[in-house]
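TOPIC: backbone geometry
CONTENTS: sequence, structure tokens:
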Amino acid sequence: GGGHAPSSRCHTGIRADTTSAGTTKPTLVLLCCIGTWLATCSLSFGAPISKEDLRTTIDLLKQESQDLYNNYSIKQASGMSADESIQLPCFSLDREALTNISVIIAHLEKVKVLSENTVDTSWVIRWLTNISCFNPLNLNISVPGNTDESYDCKVFVLTVLKQFSNCMAELQAKDNTTC
């Protein structure tokens, strides 16, 4: 209970009295600067994920996204090109994070199904879910082309993996920037 307003839109159970002096104002500025990410919730505890755990998770996502793309492009889609008409939102560290994570997860789930589980995106999906403040939205992704055609499925999988890998690499390049 109490008359305290939540310090963020994330339901972490952490509350701040915004009328008192102290560290509340700098904390709120920091939350606004970094966005949703410092206030992200872990699913198991409903508590904020630490900055160190967030960085570790992002590093794991970067490496795994690159590995998934490289392995698939060499072993299953050699010589194929990505379909530029398919657009995956980039992974972001801003207020659009929940929406972007939800769309990315939906695409990665579709990748797993279309590849008949030869591309295991389970860890990536789990890591994305763990750093999402709320449960990701349940979205249905349509695949352009004929899903009965192996070629169309492979192009879709290749495109999603390539775009996700590129976005994570771009995030790495921006890692050291500040607000």
Q: What stands out?
A: The CA atoms of residues 114 and 148 lie 10 Å apart. Residues 1-21, 23-47 have pLDDT under 50 and may be disordered. Residues 51-174 form one domain.
